[in-house]
Each structure stands twice: as C-alpha cells, then as structure tokens.
Amino acid sequence: MRTRSLCVLTAALVLSTAITACGGSSSGAQTQQATSETISATTQAAATDTTVIETAAEAISKPAPMPEPEPEPEPEPPRSPLTGKVMDEELLKQRPLAVMYPINQQAQPQYGLDRVDVFYEIMEEGDMSRQMGIMQDWQGLDRIGNIRSIRSYFVYEALEWDPIILHFGGPVDYTGEILTREDVDNINGVGGVMGSDYGAYYRIPRDGIAIEHTAYTDSENVNDAIDEAGFEREHREGYYHEKHFTFAKDGEINTLEQYPDAVDAHDIDMAGSYPVTRSALYYDEDDHLYYKTLYGNDQCDGATGEQMAFTNIFIQRCAWTHVTEDSAYLWFRIEEPREGIDDGFYITNGKMIHVTWEKKDDYEPTVYYDDNGEEVTVNQGRTMVFIIRDDTDDFSINGIDYYPDDHHTIKEAPEDSSTTATEAEATPVEEPEDEEW
C-alpha cells in the first residue's frame, strides 16, 4: 500500500512538469492549479495511508495489556476454638485450665468464673451436680476457686481441650486410672497417688463454711506449679485440635429460623436434671445472651460480680450407670468414646432445635449435628454444656417439660405432663467417705 502511494505521487509530479512545459499562459495556469490540487490530495492520502500502516504496526508490535491480578485475601486471624472469637496468637498457644468448681450453696460465690469460656455441669452422687470451667485466658487472676474433687467423666470431657486440670482430690478407685496416665497433666490439691499439688493451693477460711469449700489458687501459683511439674505450657502436638465447634462468621448470627421444628427457648429450667441446685438460664433479647442462675440466684463471679452469661447452650443426653452395683459413683458414656450417635438439644438466640452428638476419642472434640446430619453452626461466644442422664433426667423449656423419650422439639405441652422435680423432692447426700477431697 505504501509503495503504491509513492508511485502515484511520482507519476503526478512527472505529469505536472510535462503539462507546465507544453501549456499556454491561461490554460496552462488552470492546468497547473488543477494539477497542484491533485498532487496535494494524493499527498494527503499517502500520508493517511502511512499513518494507518504505522498505527497498525505499533498495535501488532505491542502485547495486549494483562488483566489486573486479584488482590490477595486477608489472612484469617487466629481464633479461639472455645468461643470462635479473634484471639492473640500467643494466648491461643497457651493450654487452658480445666477448673473443678463445687456447686454447693455454701461454696458460693466462686472466683474466675468471668474467664470461663466453656462451662460443664454434670450430676455426681445423691442428686448433687458439679461444674467444670474451661478457661483459655487465665493469666493475671488473683484468685481461682474454690476448688473441689473431680470425677473420671469430667477428666474425659476436659481432655478434648488439652488442658491442665485443677482439682482437689477425687475417688481414687474410679478416677486414679485416668488421672495417672502420662498424657494427663493435673494439679491435685490433696497430693498422693493421683498427682502432686506442687504447692499451688491455699485455704481462705470463712465463718460457718466447711473446710472443703475453702481451697483456692491463683495464676501465679499455677504458673509456679507448671514449672515445678514440668508440664508443657503450649498445646501439645497430637493432643490439641484447633477446630471444635463450627462457628458462625463475623457479623452473622445463626438464628435457627432455617429449621421448621425450632421452638422458642427463653427460659431453661434444669431442675429436673439437677434438683438440688435448680440450675436455670433466662434469655435477654437485647444482647442475645442466656444468664445463669443457681439456687434461684444469679450465679456471679466473686471478684467482679459479673453474672455468668452464655451465647450457646447444649443439653447433651448421655448413657450412664453406677460404677458398681453398690456404689453411689456414676459412670457416663463419655468415658468410653466410640462410634455412635446420642441425642440432645441446641439452644441459641431464643430458639431450640433437636441435635445428635458424638465423641470418638479422648482428645477428639464433641461434634453436634442437626437432624439433617449436618454439623450445627454455633454462634460466637461462650457455651454452657449440660450433660444429663439419658433415661432419667428431664428439663423444662418455656414451661414445656422434656422427658427422656422426647427426641424432638415440642410446640405445645401435653395435657398430662407432670411437673419436674422440686427442691423439696431432692435430698443431697454427703460425698462417700473414701473420696479424697
């Protein structure tokens, strides 16, 4: 194209010269003007062709621009496996404490409750229950306790958090085997065959209060005891699982409204399972929390006065028996992790659904499933776990009683439903004499 344009231009110049030489003055001038216009137009066309050619050449020689790369996603911040909330990475490495809290009325108030992330209540002997708190952030506590004896099933429940266990004795015949395993780290207030106290505990007497309700420790003493015992401070490989619950994402709340069988659950009365303490919770719609009561009173931390409050509640039915035919001590199926499903209920955000659960190994987490077989999404925050006897204990939700045969949510109370156990019907018994308390 460019060669053709140059040839045309050359021919035009030659023709112009010839015409100028042969023409007269008038016609020659007109011819010369026409010829000049022709040459100008031809020159412009040639220039345009040249520009087009050069532009096309440049376009061919330059590669097409690459698309902008997608921005790298922000790394997920470290989160607590107990609450699902963002937590300092160094604090997350620290092994939590599993603290045995007595539930006796004389033993109230108790200290360190405001740091508890997951709280368990399980029946012991004679209609009396006991509680265990798992706390990740326990440094800086001036007082922890009071602290009482432990049962074997509390140890098995604690192990899934890879904790250091704080307790003040327990029944040697039924708890010694698990507590003396090399993988179990415990600080035992009474010393002896189930482990040393490492100097961690002290007593704070109170007028009119039995001596067994006066044992305490603090974070400084616990740190010294850990050093003396040689326990690992950070989570141990092979024993720790970063994932326990499947938590809702930041800014999201699992309302349970996606479940057609979800029922309202604002008032949780566990007196049918724990008739002495009458553990209960009530729901606050403003902050979406369930507030804990004991003996009809707010259950509060002794130092801060803060009432215990939870985002999530699990009622976990569990197979059980007495350890021997003539023993008051209990055995729960969580002591023998296995394949298999048991049932219970999940409560959050003012609603409740039926769930199933399983725990496959000592250090494996307990996993909860909805009735579709999907793992339950748990809201971020603290969790209360009631482990009750599957064929014995009942409880009440918004005034509706749930008995052992009720494996679904109930929208209306049956006409012939009976009342749950009352405090007058429950008779607490003293702990067996062979226990180290």
Layout of secondary structure:
Blueprint: H1 2-22, H2 25-61, H3 89-93, E1 97-101, E2 118-123, E3 129-135, E4 144-145, H4 152-159, E5 164-167, H5 172-179, E6 186-188, E7 202-203, E8 215-217, H6 219-229, E9 246-247, E10 263-264, E11 267-269, E12 280-284, E13 289-294, E14 297-298, E15 309-310, E16 312-318, E17 320-322, E18 330-332, E19 342-348, E20 351-358, E21 367-369, E22 377-378, E23 383-389, E24 395-397, E25 400-402
Your description of this structure?
The protein is α+β, with helices and mostly antiparallel strands. It folds into two domains: 2-61; 89-402, 3-Layer(bba) Sandwich (YerB-like fold). The protein has six helices and 25 strands. The strands form five sheets. Strands 1, 2, 3, 5, 6, 10, 16, 19, 20, 21 and 23 form an eleven-stranded mixed β-sheet that branches. Strands 11, 12, 13, 14, 15, 24 and 25 form a seven-stranded antiparallel β-sheet that branches. β2 and β3 form a beta hairpin. α1 (2-22) packs antiparallel against α2. The model is unreliable at 1-32 and 417-435 (pLDDT under 50).
